[in-house]
Fold:
Amino acid sequence: MTDRLSSQFAFLDEIDRLKAIERATPIGDNSRPENSAEHSWHIAMYALVLADHAGPEVDISRVIKMLLLHDIVEIDAGDMPIHMAHDAEAHAAKEAAAAERLFGLLPADQAAEFRAIWTEFEAAESADAVFAKSLDRVQPLLQNLAVGGGSWIDYNVTMDQIDTRVGVKVNRGAPRIWQFVRARVAPFFSASR
Amino acid sequence: MTDRLSSQFAFLDEIDRLKAIERATPIGDNSRPENSAEHSWHIAMYALVLADHAGPEVDISRVIKMLLLHDIVEIDAGDMPIHMAHDAEAHAAKEAAAAERLFGLLPADQAAEFRAIWTEFEAAESADAVFAKSLDRVQPLLQNLAVGGGSWIDYNVTMDQIDTRVGVKVNRGAPRIWQFVRARVAPFFSASR
Structure:
């Protein structure tokens, strides 16, 4: 049991580093970039609050688990902004190696379980993963909107790109949420471009 | 439904401010104080990882929900370091008012549900709350240990105080975890004082 606790605390100590991984979007007062640990908390709260807009086949407790875990690979692989051009295959390989190392700090049964949940999230096929991904994509829009543009300005983003890169996917998992958020976001782009 | 989403997003936008609430303990690289949003993520991960050390009557999904919510009142009431002398009654009143205002941004059914979970956490009587509180008290010890003292030095803390203010309570909800963590923490105090 002490060995098990040693592995578990080695993992819990190591994932503290997610607090130092910066994202492209700022926090709401625009004072600094959001980090991936506080982002993970925020979208877990999105899942808790927006649960009633998920389909009946979605298990919100699993979605929350998934969202708490989903960015831990960034400790080794970094955050990749959605609007930044990049080699998707190379980045996916980096993330897979990160999942091996980081979840591998845990006892074997938990390492396998956490890796499986992360893989399910990345695949975006199960009902839980599709809803989780929808929330992960919606939150940065609200952060950017709160600060008057944020990473939309940094990456010269258009409403068409939002619809293609974000909207199509959010609409799959949470159509009512997308309708609501799109209506809030669209005026920014018609006003500024 | 749009009204419901408006209230839910008003709440989700507002709680972003938890990312600016600083705690007494630093993050693991000692570069800055931890904020309450990333702390909430970290202890939700503690619950996920350490679930097998909870009693059979503990519902880990509820514990995670509780831990995600537990610090939101700090947006209005601030964080109160455990080793800082303060007027407990006045602070509790401030937190109760904060819970009214902040959870009150949500639709009425969710406001009532979240307030009830927060009240249960604060009361520290149910099995879920006792385990959740144990994790919330253990994590700062590991943060301080990682940086060679942290808020223990700022507040001139002794091992006796750790045993009284932290140990007794952690032991109630998670005796195996306390035994393990105490053994890691004690050498710091015997070496330095």
Notes: The CA atoms of residues 77 and 95 of chain B lie 6 Å apart. Chain B has a mean pLDDT of 95. Chain B touches chain A through 50 residues (CB under 8 Å). The first strand of chain B starts at residue 22 and ends at 26.
